[in-house]
Design a protein that fits this description.
The chain is mainly β. Helix content is 4%, strand content 43%.
Amino acid sequence: MKLKCLLIIVFQFALVPFCFSQGLNNLWYVGYGDTSTAPWGNGKIDFFTGSATVTNFPIEMEFDQAHANISDSAGNMLFYTNGYYIANANNDTMVNGTGINPSVYTSINPDGLNLNQPNLIIPMPGDNHKYYFIHCTRDNINISVTKFIYASIIDISLNGNLGEVISKNQIILSDDLNKAKLSAVKHGNGRDWWVLCHKMNTNLFYKFLITPSGINNPATQAIGINRPEDTGQTWFSPDGSKFAYYWFQHGLEIFDFDRCTGLFSNPVHINVDPLAGSGVAFSPNGNVLYASATDELYQFDLTAANIAASKTVVAVWDSFLYTLGSVSLPTWFELMALAPDGKIYITTGNGTQQMHIIDQPDILGTACNVMQHALQIPTLYANTLPNHPNYHLGPLVGSVCDTVYTGIPPPEERLTLKLYPNPNNGTFQITYTPVPENLKLQVFNILGKEVHAQLLPQWSQLQYINVGKLPAGVYMATITSSASKKSVKFIVEE
């Protein structure tokens, strides 16, 4: 009877629906287009199964650096783009999806734009069927400059839910801008969005606020260093409180960011490396920052009193060369992105078939575990990474802007948890609600004894779990946050 009562207590949890944006950024596409000649073609990196699952993916679209996409909450692709055209879920050209980014440069690059972060896909506030596509290209006269920022609108409910571009190439800004590097973060109300770009040869940022009423005229802020023409990478931290801008010639800049006002503060400028380097990324908890220097990878402790002095070399290129025929290419450290599994993935800077992985990016020092050329891509790819903002970010709790009045009380936060395969042999994958704190995963046997425990990174939503050799039987996996708990029963077979 005691055991029966224990199981009732352990297994009985409220089954309350919880809607969240899990899955929106779970698919990454790379590659040089549909071809039968290996290693050319396209690859798909799918994080929805709990780890980076890489497969061949024969589609027509080619990708250079420019790539943006968005999926539904089940991990099914809705649409994607290389900056030249937009494709739908059937991998066909979306209705009215051609002719984006009008310029001579775009017209001669049908294989995708050689720009980093020129595309952003933003769910339209207040409309579950529409998306803003914010995009840019190179100028006709001076290809070192981005001249226009465009906005297009996609209604995914049209054409049998395959979508249609209902507004295209609306100019929302005209100026001499540093190439691409469009970044976005949720407003402190958890509904609206900030979108940022930078004016060339100045220290001026443009900031667009996207609300249910549309895209507001950009506000400006002069802060930080003067930046001549540059490339590189920009990212917000997962919680939106910090912003990093990096290009080796002009150094690394780190700012605090107020999601309510849209204002930067407390700029920190660090000269990183005079030779090369263009990639930057935050750890899941936002306290650790990484910057690439081609043959070295640097780590910075953002909680340190002197951030510049905290610089640590966490990896040195191991001289691995990718060989294709008579050509050998170095697998350097280049662009970076934080993935849904809580790891940071790094491109190699050349057309290779490898990516590097920072396995535990929240951990300081070499214990962060940089795994060089650890992810094998089935096809060649350029320096391609998707430009995904943190779609999961909610209101800035406790701030003056943490609520948007709707007349309906906000729902109580509930964790979700799925586990598969079930039954399994002690190795399985879990998907769960992304939240702004580390979750604790525990596995209990039928007697309620803990047999496995680990932390899950902030903002992550899937993990590959190996609890080791367990006796056959019934087990319970539980994830716990500061406000909620969720469990699922599973069976281990011999």
